[in-house]
Amino acid sequence: MAIKNAKTFAQVQTELQNLPLGEHKLIDIVKIIKQCETFKDKTLDSFKPAIIDESESTVNLDEVYVDLTYQRKLKLKKLLQHLQRSGGFSLEEAGHIDIAVRSNKKKFVWDGFRRSIMALLCGMIRLEHSCYTHTAPTIELQRIKEAELFTVRNAKSERMGADEIFFARYAAGEEYAKDMKHVLDRANINICGLKPGGRNMGGFAFVEKELGYQEREHGSLVDKNILDDDFVWASEQLQDNFEEGQLSSYLVCALANTRQVLKNDNESDIKDELFSENFKEWASKEGNKQKTLIEKPIKNRVIETITFRILREIVKLNGRAQTLSGLSKEDLELLEDLED
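Given the sequence above, the corresponding structure tokens read:
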């Protein structure tokens, strides 16, 4: 039966997204979902359960936990669409779930979190499962092991975004992911709930690559186009001058790139203080937004385009903006056409 104290879909989705990192019982998450006004009794009744083969190894879902330290947060709309399309729980599509038993006897679903939730919404209490019993001596090492298993199983899937893969890599203790997390903390940027209270930022894959912290073999070399300190400084400028809304990954990186360009330029003497003052003055003018600087860039020359606009509109290096930005004369002609 649906819970009577109904909440809107948006309220429930927000509550799911804001669940703190750590351990949660599956049945508690289902209670939150059932508060959604979408879940009328008629809707729940339409979600048909599957018949479980009792000869198979099954787990009682009422006893199962999920660890949001490494698991992706639920996307309620996709979950609902899947149930509606299938008319309930499809055992053929779902297969079994994977459970890890920790030394404190708690059972954690490390693969099959969404399938478990869908099963519970369909009134099922058991699912077929495979079970792994931890041998590591501490709960923290056991959590890391689960994160490693989850990453190997899911991180190569196209369904996972770069931010979700990073989240799993960080939970597994991967070196480059930990370095990336340190930079994000300094920049007060929240990715997948790892920095509560920090600003959200889109385009994570782009930033990860520009900073050189993407997933790779240990010791392999990659280009680091943006320095950590410049990225942190750029994020501070944007957050100081645009107090609301999501940060643009392109603009953070371009602002950081501009700072680096100015530091390396022997002909100009633009210090951080003057750069900050100019940016603050520009941002305070009516109509100037993040979008103003990033819209209509040259394809495959996004950072160079935005750097040029910052140098031209904010730093006021009109005569040298093109050269310093890295744009060619042909690029500039194309940009003029795009901006018309």
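Residues 9-154 form one domain. Try to locate this feature in the token string yourself.
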